[in-house]
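User: quick one
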Amino acid sequence: MLEATLNFKLLEMCSKCGACFDICPSCMHIPGYDPREVIKDILNGRHERWLDSGHIWECLECHQCLEMCYQHYGFENAMTSMRMLASKKGIYPAQVKRGWEMFVKTSRLGEPALPARKKLGLPEPKASGVDEFRKLYELLKQSREGGGSPTEAD
Amino acid sequence: MKEFAVFWGCTIQTRFPFIEKSTRTVLDAFKLPYRDIDGFTCCPEKSLVNNVDRGAFVVTAARNVSLVDELGYDLVSPCTGCVSNLATVRSELNANPGEKAHVNSFLKEIGREFTGEAGLRHLVPFFHDAVGISRIKQKIKKDFSGMRVAIHYGCHMIRPSHALKNDDPLNPKKFDNLIRALGAESLEFNTKLMCCGQGLDRIDRHENALHFARIKLKELKSMGADALILCCPSCFLQFDNNQFLMEKEGEKFGVPVIYFTELLGLALGYSPEELGMTSHRVDCGPFVKKWEAVTTALSRGVDMEEGLRAPVVIG
Ligand code: SF4
Ligand code: SF4
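Assistant: Done. Structure below.
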């Protein structure tokens, strides 16, 4: 739970279909981006070779493939799983790393622009939920270390 | 109408406070029951947080939704990404009681509970469905007749549809309906539903991001679109900022990028300055000037028609 899993049955069907290659914006406009290749390798047990490829990050999560897919599955599931695996190994674009660190530290991806707000006559921004967020994230980490409650529900 | 909290999200408050300005302006103009509440965090941004830590993505979104659940409010956001991310988690938890209970076992420790009851809506479908075209039309002071604009929906306004359930994900209509209600012509074009590509800038692929922006801007330029209308801060960043960067390098498109709330605000009679439109990188001046010229020409046209109906002409 709260982890990524891939449905290999759907993926198998997907590898025989390939239809959404023609509507995927990254397939159309980024040379070398081809989830069909990634899916083939996942099914052949050779997914490792993609972990340090920049291509797995070029899926825009636009959900076109998901919406078009007769299985309501989509290329994106395979691409997301690859990114998750790569992240676990610490392989990600520098900006993703920076964004993630800022998120974990502050609970946001940036702080409200105060001088500009004043100039525009906007009210004081509301307080963020950073303290609660930090507690929540700690709980999540503890549960993974198996040390703490709450425990897995199933 | 049910009270609703506005979820501003990180990008608008950090980079584009003028979008908050025009949004508040139009919400006030319609006297809508919106609230600012304490305690929101990043939605969180799926393509970033979910990739690194799926659990953190789910519990953070669930916590944000629990704030409005507890207050009995709905949630409305002028950011497509925020709504899409929150709705994605809500639909997943509502469909999986086991996972929902698991997430709630964490939230309980911080005194929260996710029930998943609050309505989560993006501003465009919200204006379409909850405010309504007729109420909008009644308030228009000056419409956009004669203006030809291109709409960019933004992927996450409409997708994933199983979570958002607010329009046809592959042939959406609501944004078009609103723009037409404001009197403008909504152009049909090949790249209308193409992803903006801003995500590429977030993975250190700036050249690819520019390439994506260029494809749509080129088409709009060749059609002579008066403006690109959108309602997502990421898409805004892509088409306003990146267009500006390309123009600095000598590639001229000249397509003003206008937020939905700004266009609506103009129609309601607010000035570009009052709506914060002077903060855009790509000048909106040409759009406003043409609008003034077209409106003047059209009002002359009305005179002419009256002239035609006059007894001298008919009789
Ligand atoms: S979600 Fe990713 S794989 Fe699917 S169509 Fe969009 S860019 Fe392509
Ligand atoms: S994601 Fe669906 S539509 Fe696309 S290739 Fe796979 S099975 Fe076919």
